[in-house]
Amino acid sequence: MDRLSATDAGFYYAESEDAPLHVGSVSVFEGPAPSYGDLVRLLLSKMPQVPRYRQRVRRVPLDLGRPVWVDDPHFQILYHVRHTAVPKPGGPEQLRNLAGRVLGQRLDMAKPLWEVWLVEGLEDDRWAVISKVHHCMVDGIAGTDLMQVVFDLDPDAEHAAPRDWSPQRSPSGAGLVAGALTETVTAPLRQLTAGPAAVTGGAKGLVSSARAAASVLPALARQAVTPTARTLTGPIGPHRRWAWADAEFAEFKAARTALGGTVNDVVLTAITRGFRDLLEGRGALGADTVVRTMVPISVRQAGERGSLDNRVTAAFVDLPVGERDVRERLASIRRQMDEHKRTMAAVDARSIIAMGDFMAPTMLALGVRASMQAGQMWCQAVTTNVPGPRVPLYLLGRRMVSAHPYVPIAGGTRISIGIFSYLNSMTFGINADFDAFPDVDVLSEGIRRGVDELVALAAGRPAAAAR
Which residue windows are coiled coil (predicted)? Predict the structure, then answer.
């Protein structure tokens, strides 16, 4: 049995009626749309490379162990691949509205946790694919690998015919309990019997992690007393607003070269302008206000690309929305990110994540559900940057021209921003609670203004004054 890791199980347990925890994307293609049947046959031909797409999550009775992946004996691809259209000629607003409704709906947790929607009717003879995959199945980096499995690098690529498939027999309830109890006993023993080097290395890792944790306590103390934009957090409803912003990758590279820092530092600085405009419009902006965002960081190693599970940790960054000067915003973000990098270098984040495997499964399930229901006030947003391919991708011979990411919201954090780079573009997908963010377009337009002011500053031109 393939058991969910502690991180993946946490994402699965956190799913609720008002907090669907799938990631997704909207990809637009040029050329005439393929037929529904051709898309279904393509996905069927790719299934042997991603067997998880025919599996569902099965819980262990009484949550005595973490859930396991089992083959779905009733798998039917026609349920997972949907076909729809917008009234011609559908523009960006029509596609965003449709994608917001589709991405805001929960996946059926009793079936394999994914959907693909073929969307026709777009202007300029284009069409789109809306994809959804539950977060317990992939993180952003693994999701990029999946996209490269489904898509082609060659427009003339040939595809194998779909092969017959027979599901493996699902274990009984008693078998699930027995396997969970065995795993609970044997996993710690495997660590203890791995040899002296492993034990010594683990002890050293704990010592270095403790030292690193002590070194970040001052930063955490500062964050605890920093005035954050707490009006952005609160209860989450069942509906979503979705918006996006577009930029060129060269714009961020030019700003990085002229102003310093990394591309990610520049991206966060542009997002800071968006949140500044949002809070300014609400009359909730103070000179010292920050928007604290969680920035997921992949700890996936090069040899682990393609494995379909979550290997992520997180940093918390205070976006200085109250700061009027663009250079100072970038400098503040750069200092914080550099500090996080030093901490990550001292901490074995992979060992910390693995410690969750020793947590009692029942306590893990109860703890995740309780934390999601209680909400939190520590951070106000999630911002995740996933590097995509820098070469063209094709689906059934049609070239992908753009892709916008979708990142879920939960636990009182009512807005998330996914960033995705493809070819020479960088796109922002903004997912927000419907009732809390009627002004989500102010944020998306503000991000674009943030890019413009950084480009102007890099070129030595006067940037537009912040409000």
Answer: 323-350
